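Here's what a typical entry looks like (Methanogenesis marker 17 protein):
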Amino acid sequence: MPQLKQLVIESPDEVGREAYERIAADVLQDLDLVKVVEYLHIYVDPKVPIFVAAGRLRHMPRAIRVNDFVNVNIGEKMTVLDIADETYLAPLLRKLWARYGKENVDQPDRFTVVLPAGVAGEEELEQMVVADPSETLYKDVIYALQYIAPEGFKVRRQYIKGGKFYYVASEDTLPGDIVETMVAPIFERMGVTL
């Protein structure tokens, strides 16, 4: 199983640095983020007060499309969707209802969905995105950083996109140039540009 390549904790307080190292490692492990977070660099200074975390994700999970778990069979009178895996059946039905209307979506059994012929093309159906696991991954990463940050640091900025993320928190107002002055240099040390 892939592990976190690098976890760096910086702090002027050595005891606090060691505590944050344990806290960050435990939170990432508990939320099962160790296998998706490749680098995490945290700077915390309770005297300023400031908490800055920046990192990179190992890989982004790909979107789940209909053709990943359904066989689409186009007939003269109907299009039959044979469900191979029920995991994404509920979101599939919601997408079909939203796009084609409930009146055009029939589910005679739990492994079959039927649409009238001509409502949708085969490629259109097969390429329809049913779920995007990266959305929940983004929420989990930000949740983890909120949990790691010192309690009371409620003023925050967060960013996660394209496999890069940062989270800045403080008790005080954050300066407008915080990303340029504190976050960008952390990314540079990781060999990444923001």
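The helical segments are 14-30, 89-100, 122-126, 133-148, 178-190.

More examples are in the samples folder.
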